Amino acid sequence: MKLRKQVVVIGGGFGGLAVTRALAREAVQVTLVDRRNHHLFQPLLYQVAMAGLSPAEIAVPIRSVLRKQNNARVLLAEASRIDLAARQVVLREAPPLPYHYLVVATGSCTSYFGHEDWRQVAPGLKDIEDAVEIRRRVLLAFEAAEREPDPEARLRYLTFVVIGGGPTGVELAGAIAELASYVLARDFRAINPEDTRVLLLEGGARILNTFAPQLSDRTLRSLAGMGVEVRTDAKVTRIDREGIFLGNERIMAGTVLWAAGVAASPLPDGLNAPVDRAGRVLVERDCSLPSNPEVFCIGDAAAFFTENDTAPLPGVSPVAMQQGRFVARQIRRRIDARPSETFVYHDKGSMATIGRSRAVVEIGQVHLSGFIAWLVWLLVHIYYLIDFSNRVFVIISWAWSYLTYRRGARLITGRDRTGEGT
Ligand SMILES: Cc1cc2nc3c(=O)[nH]c(=O)nc-3n(C[C@H](O)[C@H](O)[C@H](O)COP(=O)(O)OP(=O)(O)OC[C@H]3O[C@@H](n4cnc5c(N)ncnc54)[C@H](O)[C@@H]3O)c2cc1C
Q1: Could you tell me the residue range of the domain that residue 392 belongs to?
Q2: How far is residue 26's CA from residue 28's CA, in Å, rounded to a whole number?
């Protein structure tokens, strides 16, 4: 019997799952390795952080996603090293995995641009632990304000600073403002929702700078209507437990959240590939490594430049999924001894939500904002949750919190990560 080609995929995110599933009918054996047992729907993480959804509603075990795919197996393990010469992946928890083709889809992580000390005081939003930590801090800030007799200290607890005016920063700022004005105001006695201050700080000239300027303006107006103070050209120079500094200006804040930067996740040792400033692998037009055509890198871990572009493709899920499907096709072509193709990205547009019923959507020349855009956002997210067996519950949870302003997931859990205790 002819030995099947071994394909190893590192990462069970959008890219890794797409390539694995696209190989379902091929005569290959796929091993998907992930250090987490779940695939995470990151676009809805902010809903967990803002107590709108529970973690289990936006994550699904990778093993269950692939349960019907007979040529795929899942290993819960961390890929620590890649031995390119021996063509094997070294795992921390298991014997090395030999491969004929390797796909690195390790995603990205939060970057503090060299200010590692800010990580403790200003959590980013990248995984479930981050989301639960943000939820804990935001809810604890309201609890602390409720029992604080000193008005000045209470105002500090009720000041929330979100750093970074991209989609995640806009989503977080809008959601905190709504959490304060609609939800918590009903449950607390000493807190006046008017006292809550939400600041969104953007270092550049405008928020949502990858969207058309008019959509940035509309977002600005929507946020202002919700009571969010947006400051552009605002470069944070220091963050500590009391708040932040913008140069000489001190802003006291009980909660500071970081939505300003991402970099590629640390790559397994030995990959020996050229990377850009954000640590992403500079890949060829077929998403392979320049020196090792049998190794591919896709999604947030890769920097893919199209012919005329000076910036790589954005770190969004459609890029990862399309590259995943593309690489599955290239593997098939390699096995058939056919030449590689060039990856072409089909841009499906961008969207960001602003609170519970507004959004901005940009699809080519079509620019939508307000409630219609939010409906489009909702439909797209429901569609992409289609792989989640629990999507019905997600929709019910959403509908419930939308109609009642209640927050079903408003639990304070997890440990204090600041080391201060609460
Ligand atoms: C808060 C937030 C909101 C977002 N919103 C949107 C949105 O609205 N629309 C959109 O299109 N995109 C959005 N994105 C971006 C999108 O989620 C990413 O572009 C996408 O997840 C990239 O897919 P990926 O497969 O490259 O990486 P990921 O989906 O991050 O998957 C990487 C996987 O690799 C695993 N891994 C990493 N290193 C190792 C290792 N050494 N060994 C084993 N396993 C490893 C990780 O555990 C993880 O499961 C958002 C991202 C965040 C953080």
Answers
A1: 118-260+349-404
A2: 5
